[in-house]
Amino acid sequence: MIKEAIGKVVLKRDLTEMEMEKVMREIIMGSASDAHIASFITALRMKGETTEEITTAARVIKNRVYMIHAGDDVVNLDREEITVERETILSTTKGITEGTNIFNISTATALVVAGGGFKVAKCGRRSASSLCGCGDVIEALGINLDMTSTQLERCLKEVGICFLCEPLAQNGLGHIIAIREKIGIRTIFNLLDPLINPAGAKLQVLGVYEPGLTETMAKVLISLGIKRGLVVHGEGTLDEISIIGKSKVTEFKDGEIKTYFIKPEDFGMKRGKLDEIRGGTGKQNAEIILEILRGVEGARRDVTILNAAAVFMIAGRAKDFNEGVKLANQSIDTGEAFHKLERLMKFTNEERRYLRDSFP
Question: Quick one: 101 and 187 in the same domain?
Fold first, then answer.
């Protein structure tokens, strides 16, 4: 099926739901060759993915991955998105490439939101390139990523935040990651990563890498059962709310969609520069995050505050962005966000010792 689909897509013709489902099943089951997969996702990107194609692909993958038993009191926040359910889990995933090479805003955001009282399940990936992946900075912060699903569920319950290493969340889809890394462009899988939603959240804030995708992805989220959410594209920072320029926001609730723009000045913040939020190695990004959690002022803190504010707002904790900004600042200034990090480090490293003692 994938060969026929490639021929159709290169002619700029959209795939039906049935065709897309068959192709995705071939891809995830390993029956499609690497060459066919690379050709297909490249052609699809050039044509432009439709709402139906993205939604169908997401459903096929979601049936494959492991789901965390998070309960009803969890918010799910994902990189290239932030998701929320019943005012509580988060899961944040980071794409393979980060064109602007900014620091790991999503990791800092997850800790700030957790400090604000939400339970957070954040997905992460170790980088296979010179760029710093979410998993790299998490480990540099002293957090053990090599945990079982049962341990992660207990960590979420007891600490209020956990990080899922990508192999667990992807559940055997590593061959696709290798193909994506080789072709080196953003594809439909960059859009699918945040839609995996292992905690089954019903509220979501999703960041996308192109402004034209905000309305499309809002429709995808609605089709996937998300009740309320935001899809954002930020100037200069792509799939984050920006501190260096305006951000496009497409908001939806109960099936109704509206689009508007926000900028740092709307919240009394000084517009920053790209150099002020650039990142580096895992160790360097970890140091940046520690500075933010310790209350250091500047563009890095401000961009984290804006992204955390979006979660507080969409979860119903804040009535608008301005109130969300206040809650995010409070999480940092009271030391709650930093305390979450300390508790997470302690829990994950004690679990590591337990495993080594019990299973030599």
Answer: yes
Torsion, CA 172, CA 178, CA 179, CA 183, rounded to 10: 150
Looking at per-residue pLDDT, the higher value among 277 and 90 belongs to: 277
Dig out the tokens for 244 from the structure. 């260096």
Residue 229's pLDDT is what?
Answer: 87
- At 122, give phi and psi (nearest 5°): -110, 125
> What's the structural domain count of the chain?
2
Residues 77 and 113 sit within 8 Å (Cβ to Cβ): yes
Name which residue leads in pLDDT, 193 or 318.
Answer: 318
Can you list the alpha helix ranges (DSSP code H) found in the chain? Answer: 2-9, 17-29, 34-47, 51-62, 105-115, 134-140, 149-158, 166-170, 174-183, 188-192, 214-223, 282-293, 299-314, 321-333, 336-358
| Radius of gyration, CA atoms only, the chain | 19
What CATH code is carried by the domain that includes residue 295?
A: 3.40.1030.10
Region of residue 338 (left: phi > 0; alpha: psi -120 to 50; beta: else):
alpha
Packed helices 105-115 and 299-314: angle between N→C axes, nearest 10 degrees: 60
For the ranges 91-95, 103-107, 290-294, the lowest mean pLDDT is seen at: 91-95
Q: Same domain for 170 and 39? A: no
- What domain range includes position 217? 82-338
- CB 312 within 8 Å of CB 241: no
Claim to verify: residue 15 and residue 122 sit in the same structural domain: no
Asked whether 212 and 244 are in contact (CB, 8 A), the reply is no
Name the 3-class secondary structure at 250: strand
pLDDT at 77 over 70: no
The reply to whether 44 and 97 lie within a common domain is no
